[in-house]
Design goal:
Helix content: 10-25%
Strand content: 35-45%
Order of helices and strands: HEEEE
Number of domains: 1
Number of strands: 4
Number of helices: 1
Structural class: alpha+beta
């Protein structure tokens, strides 16, 4: 699988997840793949990993990993609860 193909699949999966799981009381409409952006991406050997987000201020981000050995895609959805700075 090529990088662009992987990222296209990732964006589609994020849209599918968001549109199926968004809070019904939110005034936000459905997302499209054009709304999803890649925060970080890496390809190592036959594996891919991407962190993605949307412009919706819900604190969510998405991690998608492709295991090239097993031809499997793993999808993780996270919500950021806090960002704490510690002086070292």
């Amino acid at each position: 699988m090529g990088s662009q193909e992987f990222l296209n699949i990732c964006k589609a999966k994020v849209v599918e997840y968001f549109n199926s799981n968004k809070d019904k009381t939110d005034a936000t409409g459905n997302l499209t793949v054009n709304d999803v952006f890649v925060v970080w991406y890496c390809k190592t050997l036959q594996n891919h990993k991407a962190l993605l987000s949307t412009p919706i201020s819900d604190g969510m981000y998405y991690e998608i990993t492709y295991n090239g050995d097993k031809n499997e895609l793993y999808f993780d959805a996270y919500k950021k609860w806090k960002n704490i700075c510690f002086d070292l």
